[in-house]
Structures are given as structure tokens and as C-alpha cells.
Amino acid sequence: MRTSNPKPLPTRDLDHVGIRTLTWKRRGSKARHTVNPAKYQCSILAAQLADEWITYTRSIARVDGGADIANAVRGFVEFVDKHLPTLGVDPAEARLDGHVVDLVEVIHAWEEDLRQHHGLRSNSPYAKTNSLLTLLEQRSLKDAKVPEALRVRAQAPPAYPPIQSEPLDEFSNGERIVLRDAARAAVRELEARLARGRDLLERGADPREAGWREPANLLWAATHPPMLNGKTLKPHFPQNVLSWPGPVKALLPRAPDGTLLKRGFRPLVVELGRLLFPTETDLQAFRVLLMLGMSDTSPEELHGLHLPDIEFTDGGVRLVQRKMRAHRVRADLHPDPDTEPKEETPQEFAGDGAWDVPGLLRRLLAATELSRKIFPDAEPWLFLAVERRRNGVLGAGLADFNNRQRRFGGWIASQHDADGKPLKISKPYEIRRLRKTTKVVRAVALGGTVSDLAGDDHHVEVYRMHYAHGTTAHILAGRSINRAQQWVFDRMTTPTRPVLVTEEAEQHLEEPEVAEDLGLEAEQAKALRTGELDMGLVNCRNPWASPHRNDTKVCHVAPAMCMLCRNAVVFTSQIPRLLLLSDHIEHMRANLTPRHWQALWGRQAAALEEVFEECTDLIPAARREIAELGLRLDLPLGMRTEFDR
Question: What is the dihedral of CA 256, 259, 261, 262, to 10 degrees?
Fold first, then answer.
């Protein structure tokens, strides 16, 4: 009999139905993840899966408490409660070590439901199913009561594979420069603002005695955070903001046309804090510059830095970095440059320090120094931001950059170039693209092999999969291929022709001026004149420097390749030999296919044609000499097979 109404929850507490909870702390925040089996009709199944979740999360030391796995457990048992009653099965019968409910079929139905709920382009069905199967496999390895079908299913992959999304591309070099300049301008603006605020603070006093209507006294109150909030300010100011004292009203944010953007005590507290302490938005500029300057550091490693992780040395700064996903701790030294760039103009607030990594860290620590002094209980994060909290009081904590306006994309949207126009940066606004940009800059600078470009913080395969796909890398690879192809094409198409020496020049060949005009040295000219460098077809200026071999041994392809050699020198007395070679090449044209003939003899035929064009008037006499003397090619025996075929 089928039933559509679920049975009521158990009325008595069961030993196995306790709330499973995991707490974790990361980057100054705490979170709790729970699975309460008593909320579900399949309470035994929920308890078993929750136990496996806790065991697995603790065994592999998941830094996030296994939030995704807990979510998968809750989603699966909720589906079991809805699905089994439609089949006429009591959900309470479902358990990992039972045979009443076929969990393999339930898992298949759950995957189909996830697919329809999340859509075809979502990875959630794969991720949730994979988490569940991981727990099932862990259980099957230690519990012999797990059915064999469920054991086999646990070892198989999810029914739907993950969606391979397009990897992020890096920012272009132009965008990198725009982001760098905008971040530098933001840092200068921050340092100028903090300098103004701290100068004003020196004149401040306790507003309870010196009055609440002086900005300096309000800043003094900001250094005693509990004193500065809307409740304490309200009795001392009129309700109408326009009636506030001019110096105090001037602290409120304004539009370019001078109108007030925000009114009230909340924005006043925020602006007073901004005059003394860096906010998350301010720290985003330092984050951008450090990411652009540290090619071997991920956003995660940079974000997690504490002050004890930073050690300044005589040669630079040493950083102890932790990469949670790779479970790796390493130390990197960022050296100080020999010279510091002088980029600031007298009209700009230059700040203190350089734009290299050590200089940026010094400037960041100087900017947050007062924050650490006023909020001593805050954890010593490098990116310590001061914001107005929900209770209306200023508070310090890690800049998590999660708020929509404070994320990397929000920071880009709030920046302007030198002309006051919004930055033109391609989307998506992902901080990880900065990481890839620095990798590409490193690749351009090194120009080495993939193993060189991967660096010390990646395997070659990781670099190939996640970094080598970038547009710049493809352009560089294309240029390299084009250069290699062009070199081959040039070698194939650029004519390499022998030097033709006229009869008159041959008579004066040993004279220095004539030899120099022909590109010959005095000793080479003398040897050519006496016939010492006659290779059987033409002369050779240096048989021991053949372009057809890499060693210094005598050329092994003469005279077969002499007409294609830059060392060849042709005397007019050798024209009959060249005519005989030309006749042979034409004879081979009739015996070979056009493609084959072109590959073997085409280039030599073209070289001979150019030589003959330069001495057209000598060709008839050379033909008569061949006929009268019965000349033939005088070649080594080993070469005759190349010409007599």
C-alpha cells in the first residue's frame, strides 16, 4: 500500500540521533556546521552519514570543516525523505548497512533531481554526489555489512562529470599598467589622508571637556572607539545636518559638485575613522600592488599573512607563506632593489618607501600602525582594516574583501584614471587574474622552457593547465613558431648563389682591393688563383667552413651542393662545367615527376640560370669548347651516381 504522508518523528531520544557539529576558525572568523538526524525521517541514515562526515573531515584536517560535505549529507537525506514515500517505502528503513532500501537507485534518482534543479551548466550535481560517494566508500571499507551493490557504486564516479569551465585569462599588459597606476594613486591618496588626519589628531583633546564640535576632538574620540557612536554624538549636534558646524559638516562625503552624498552620524563616524585608519577598500590597493609584484604568491597566501610571518632583513623581507589547499608552508625572500625609482612629482604626496615588495610592506605597516595601537586585541593580520561595525562603533579585523563594494571588482569600479574616467578593465574582475598576469610577465622576462616558467611554486603540469593557456602565452608561442618558420622559409627561399669572378678580375685577384671587393682574404685569393680550392665544379673559399655541417671537417657534399653554397666562387673558365651540369639537370627533368625534380634540382637550376644571365656573352664560346674538346663532368667516383642516373 502506497502512502504519501510521512510518519511522525520519533517521540523518544535515540542514542544514535545526536546533533553532529563541527566548528572551525579561519582568518579570524568562526563557523559551525551541523547535521541534526532527528530532523529527518531517515534518522539512522542521516546519523550514519553525519558520523562519516565528521570522521572524514577530521582525518584529512579540512580547514573549512567540510561544509560542502555536510551540505551534501543534508541534501541527500532530505531527498530520501521526499522520494521513498512516493515508492511506498518508509524512509526510516533506509540505512547504510541495510537491504530494505536500495540506496543505489536512490542515489541515481537524487543525481537526476540535482541535475534538473541546478541546470546543465552547474557543477553542483557532481560536487554533491562526489562528496556523498566519498563518505559511502569510507564506510564500505570498514563495515562489512554494507551491501555489495552500494560498495561498488561508492567506488564509481558520479553519473554526471564536472563541467569544464573556461580558465581565466590574464589581464593585458596595458590593463596591468592601468591597475598598477590606479593602485599607486590610491596608496598616495591614503597616505595623504592619514597624514592630514594624524596631524589634526595632535591638536585634539577629550571632547567631554574640550567640546564635541571640533574635528580634532572628534578624532581624539575615534582613538577611544566606544566613545564615538551615534548615541554619544546625538546630544551635541542639531538634528538637521545642515545646521552642523562647518568644519564638522565638511567631514561628510560630498559629490564633485559639492552636494552631500551621505548625512547623519553613521557616515560621520565612518569618515572620522578613514582619517586615522585604513579601510578594506584602502587595503585593496596594497593587495593589488603586492600581487603584481609577487609572481610566486597566491591571493590566499598573501591574504593570510600575519605580522610574525614578516621579517625584514638587511637584504629585503622574508615572508612565511601558507597555502591551505596545498597544505604547504614556505619562506620566500624578496630583496630590496639597488636603486629606488623616482616617479613622484613635487605636486604629489609621495609617501615613504618604494613600490617594490619590501617598500610596499613597510608602507602598509606604517599605514596600519595606529590601527594596531588603538585596537591591541585585534589579531596581528597584515591586512588589518578598521570599519564601522553593526553596533555603530569602529572596530578592527581582517579585511576579508567579501563585501560587494569592497571586493576587487568594486575597487576597480570606484577607480578613475588621470583624466577622471572609469578604468577600462576587461571582465571578470577576479583577483586570480592578477596572479596569472604576474606569471605571464615572468614568462615574458625569462622566455625559457615551461619548466623555467612554472617556477618553484608549481609543477610543470599545473602551469600548463592553468597558466600557459593565457592570451599572452599564446601570442608568445605563436611568435616563436612564426620566427622558426620564417627562418626555415628564408633558408629555403633566400637565394644562396656563388660569386662570379670575371676574367679580368681573375687576373688581378691577388690584389688586396680586388679581393676585398669580392669578400675574399688575401690567402684565399692566392689559393683560388693557383687552383688549390677547386672542388671539381667550382672553387670554394673555405672547404672547412661548410654551411652543410657543424664541425670543422672538410665539406662532404661538394661538388653536388656547390651551386647552393655561399662559399662557392665561379671563374669564367668553369662555365663549361656548369653548362654540362645544367644539361644533366634538364635531362633529369624528363625522367622525374615535376615535384620530385623540383625537390632535387629546382634550386640548383635557378642558381645556374642566374650565373648564366651574368655571363650571357660567354655561353656560345663555352658551348664550342665542350664540343671541340669533348668535355664531360670531372667528378669524384662517389658523386657520379648523383649525376649519371
Answer: 150
